[in-house]
Amino acid sequence: SRSIRLAVIPGDGIGQEVVAQGLKVLGAVLPQDVKLETKEYDLGARRWHATGETLPDAELESLKEHDAILLGAIGDPSVPSGILERGLLLKLRFAFDHYVNLRPSKLFPNTATPLAGRPEIDFVVVREGTEGPYTGNGGSLRTGTPHEVATEVSLNTAYGVERVVRDAYERADARPRKKLTLVHKNNVLVHAGHMWKKIFDQVGEEYPEVTTDYLHVDAATIFFVTQPERFDVIVTDNLFGDILTDLAAAVTGGIGLAASGNINPTGAFPSMFEPVHGSAPDIAGTGKADPTATVLSTALLLRHLGYDAEAARIEEAVAADLAARDQTPRTTGEIGDALATRVAG
Ligand code: IPM
Ligand code: MN
């Protein structure tokens, strides 16, 4: 019989609560003969306070023994900014070579958005996940003096750009509209920007059916708000993708619905699925967190592992649940229960 070995990192704040609902829905949607084996990892702020560790090597090794990772949220105000982000979340993305950070945006019915009633919005951002300004290259000079200098170097390799651009073309080619937009800033960032554009054009020759487009990132933010229906697949660098996908979430129903996958398409390492939102310490423990983004992330997880029908069932359940939502507030657990009932039914 089949099985899924799933590593679970609930993390900080609302991470614990939303992950519990994600697992509930996963359990409900999988066929009887698929065994879901979960192993939970105690990583995040609590662990760091207790032991000073963020992601010990032994745990990194053990995580490799899984088919996929489900992550809740990382970050806590009691930990200096950057420690958990770099030491845990980014360490995982880099160590497992998650070069495709996949972030779909869909305008679901009945959601609070400045764009309600607009034409259909259904696009996906392919954010590069292992390079750009996220590599930590750079440094500080003359720290603490009035002449302090800090650099943050964006690393872009032809190898790294080509593989993510190719993945984006593949995804665009598989969608009905077959459109791919490169977002960068090659009028200013001439070194990296021109390399991205050159590789984008070169790889494009292998995908004659895909229509291509280029936008500077500042112009892209305008179109995200005024004309989001123009986008199908977007490929962009790590930092631009980070910013654009928060904006995408905000205009398509809120950060409570935005799902993501940190994917290693080669299968060399487990891919990791997480909501785009953070740990929201202000509402942790109140039952106010919307688990929908995590549940939609489990759909991405299932599709990555080849369970397409089950992934689609989850997405349909979310669409139906959103369509039926009224003003009555529901707790995290109630939303999870409703979704679990829908996918099972
Ligand atoms: C995200 C987050 C992370 C990022 C942070 C927490 C390191 O904002 O997943 O979008 O910048 O990638
Ligand atoms: Mn972000």
Automatic annotation (TrEMBL):
<keyword id="KW-0560">Oxidoreductase</keyword>
<feature type="binding site">
    <location>
        <begin position="278"/>
        <end position="290"/>
    </location>
    <ligand>
        <name>NAD(+)</name>
    </ligand>
</feature>
<dbReference type="GO" id="GO:0000287">
    <property type="term" value="F:magnesium ion binding"/>
</dbReference>
<comment type="pathway">
    <text>Amino-acid biosynthesis; L-leucine biosynthesis; L-leucine from 3-methyl-2-oxobutanoate: step 3/4.</text>
</comment>
<feature type="binding site">
    <location>
        <position position="103"/>
    </location>
    <ligand>
        <name>substrate</name>
    </ligand>
</feature>
<feature type="binding site">
    <location>
        <position position="242"/>
    </location>
    <ligand>
        <name>Mg(2+)</name>
    </ligand>
</feature>
<keyword id="KW-0464">Manganese</keyword>
<dbReference type="GO" id="GO:0005737">
    <property type="term" value="C:cytoplasm"/>
</dbReference>
<feature type="site" description="Important for catalysis">
    <location>
        <position position="134"/>
    </location>
</feature>
<keyword id="KW-0479">Metal-binding</keyword>
<dbReference type="Pfam" id="PF00180">
    <property type="entry name" value="Iso_dh"/>
</dbReference>
<dbReference type="InterPro" id="IPR050501">
    <property type="entry name" value="ICDH/IPMDH"/>
</dbReference>
<dbReference type="GO" id="GO:0051287">
    <property type="term" value="F:NAD binding"/>
</dbReference>
<keyword id="KW-0460">Magnesium</keyword>
<feature type="binding site">
    <location>
        <position position="218"/>
    </location>
    <ligand>
        <name>substrate</name>
    </ligand>
</feature>
<feature type="binding site">
    <location>
        <position position="127"/>
    </location>
    <ligand>
        <name>substrate</name>
    </ligand>
</feature>
<comment type="function">
    <text>Catalyzes the oxidation of 3-carboxy-2-hydroxy-4-methylpentanoate (3-isopropylmalate) to 3-carboxy-4-methyl-2-oxopentanoate. The product decarboxylates to 4-methyl-2 oxopentanoate.</text>
</comment>
<keyword id="KW-0963">Cytoplasm</keyword>
<feature type="binding site">
    <location>
        <position position="93"/>
    </location>
    <ligand>
        <name>substrate</name>
    </ligand>
</feature>
<comment type="similarity">
    <text>Belongs to the isocitrate and isopropylmalate dehydrogenases family. LeuB type 2 subfamily.</text>
</comment>
<dbReference type="InterPro" id="IPR023698">
    <property type="entry name" value="LeuB_actb"/>
</dbReference>
<keyword id="KW-0432">Leucine biosynthesis</keyword>
<feature type="domain" description="Isopropylmalate dehydrogenase-like">
    <location>
        <begin position="5"/>
        <end position="339"/>
    </location>
</feature>
<dbReference type="GO" id="GO:0009098">
    <property type="term" value="P:L-leucine biosynthetic process"/>
</dbReference>
<keyword id="KW-0028">Amino-acid biosynthesis</keyword>
<keyword id="KW-0100">Branched-chain amino acid biosynthesis</keyword>
<comment type="subunit">
    <text>Homodimer.</text>
</comment>
<protein>
    <recommendedName>
        <fullName>3-isopropylmalate dehydrogenase</fullName>
        <ecNumber>1.1.1.85</ecNumber>
    </recommendedName>
</protein>
<feature type="binding site">
    <location>
        <position position="246"/>
    </location>
    <ligand>
        <name>Mg(2+)</name>
    </ligand>
</feature>
<dbReference type="GO" id="GO:0003862">
    <property type="term" value="F:3-isopropylmalate dehydrogenase activity"/>
</dbReference>
<feature type="site" description="Important for catalysis">
    <location>
        <position position="185"/>
    </location>
</feature>
<keyword id="KW-0520">NAD</keyword>
<dbReference type="InterPro" id="IPR019818">
    <property type="entry name" value="IsoCit/isopropylmalate_DH_CS"/>
</dbReference>
<dbReference type="InterPro" id="IPR024084">
    <property type="entry name" value="IsoPropMal-DH-like_dom"/>
</dbReference>
<feature type="binding site">
    <location>
        <position position="218"/>
    </location>
    <ligand>
        <name>Mg(2+)</name>
    </ligand>
</feature>
